[in-house]
Fold this protein.
Amino acid sequence: MLIAHLPSGYVLGSLARGPGRQGQDAMVAAMVGSVVPDIDMLYFHFVDGGHTHHHDYITHWPLFWLATGLTSLVVGRLLGWPNLPAIGLFFAGAMLHMLLDTVASPIMWLVPFDRHAFELVTVPAAYGNWVVSFMLHWTFGLEILICAWALWLALRQLSRRTAAPQNGT
Ligand SMILES: [Zn+2]
């Protein structure tokens, strides 16, 4: 997935906080979680020299995010952390990232127990540049749809804020 991870986090945060309710921290958590697995691109480019596909790193292991998410929620609950919903949304965003990556690129859903990679659709290298191959494949339509959904939610939120009466006026 090329462009829709951050917008998907916005959609997740919007759906989680519901219409009109506040929850800026939840929105930020969902959006950061939706892109955080791709932080491994820094390692991929600057340390690994592009030798290993970044989907092989632990940051693209769904069971890693599931295990750390559940552990964080349990520990947070035991210690009485105040912002468990935001923590949950951060990890939900990371799992959403795994799901969306699976649409058109291989993700090893059961690693470290099984290294078989799953992908919904294989995008053929139809053009010399892999980015062009992805952008001209029909699966890119899903990305555009997610971006349009996020834009529509953002515009709706903006119009509600604009229409809401201001305090003290
Ligand atoms: Zn990714």
